[in-house]
Amino acid sequence: MTDTSKRIALVTGASRGIGRAVALELARQNWRVIVIARATKALEALDDEIKALGGEASLVPHDLRDYDGLDRLGGALFERFGQLDGLAACAGVLGSLTPAHQVTPSIMEETFGVNFIANWRLIRAMHPLLRASDAGRAVFVTSGASKNPRAYWSPYAASKAALDAMVISYAAELNVTPIKANLFNPGPTRTAMRAKAFPGEDPMTLPTPEEVAPSIVAMLAPSYTQNGAWVQFERK
Fold first, then answer.
1. Tens of pLDDT along 183-234?
2. pLDDT at res. 130
């Protein structure tokens, strides 16, 4: 039976990396989590871990580039829960590290599709649910590349810069509501995406997703009052 006293959070990119760690940390802190990822088996394994923690999860195997599906998800969540207390938008793709003039349309479309457009569609679909909460909180995972683009990173850097601009604009619109929306930069983290981008780097020198996750979960708490902030993870 669903515990209606628990706060409810939606986590994207939950099959691995930071998204998975955030979902588990939310479960530890007595949230009910709705987890989205394309990998069904990975979501099922995550569900087992959440249950082992005494938590509850709803699994949503979904490609974020099925934008209309996000609208349908918003409707389904409203019918089931009536509100959403937290949105942790952790999904992201690196794209291809290549000169801008050689980036293919498919790579640019995929990178912007996941890193930017899907998050816009999430805002569009989930805003009414966040508004129904007493303290809706949304956190979008960004990157230092949004502020410091480097050679060969144009799809990723541009998509994250667009995300930053959108979220900060959205946050400015929320001042008359209980919702807070913020950006979080985890910095270099021991993930598969980081290994793809920097194959020669020693991953053991980097913080794990499990170290990063509590900072994101803290930004979803009703007590978190910043709005429109760009927050940098600091390793303890």
1. 999 999 999 999 999 999 999 999 999 999 999 999 999 999 999 999 999 9
2. 98
The contacts of residue 110 (CB under 8 Å, 6+ apart) are 65, 93, 95
**CATH number of the domain at 8-232, please?**
3.40.50.720
Asked if 110 contacts 95 with a C-beta cutoff of 8 angstroms, the reply is yes
First to last CA, the chain: 38
Contact 24, 49 (CB under 8 A): yes
Question: Vertex 176, ends 85 and 186: CA angle to 5°?
Answer: 50
For position 1, what pLDDT does the model report? 41
Identify the bridge partners of residue 182 per DSSP, sorted by sequence position. Answer: 139
Q: What does the pLDDT read at residue 236?
A: 78
Mean pLDDT over 45-53 rounds to 97
Query: Does residue 170 have an active-site annotation?
Result: no
Q: Please compute Rg for the chain using Cα positions.
A: 17
Out of 152, 156, 170, 224, pick the active-site residue: 156
Own/partner pairs, 114-119, CB within 8 angstroms, 24+ separation: 114/64, 114/65, 114/159, 115/156, 115/159, 115/160, 115/162, 115/163, 116/159, 116/162, 116/163, 116/166, 117/65, 117/67, 118/12, 118/64, 118/65, 118/67, 118/70, 118/91, 119/89, 119/163, 119/166, 119/167
**What's the rounded Cα separation, in Å, for the pair 4 and 179?**
20
Across the strands, what pairs with 184? 141, 231
Given a contact cutoff of 8 angstroms between Cβ atoms, the answer to whether 86 and 31 are in contact is yes
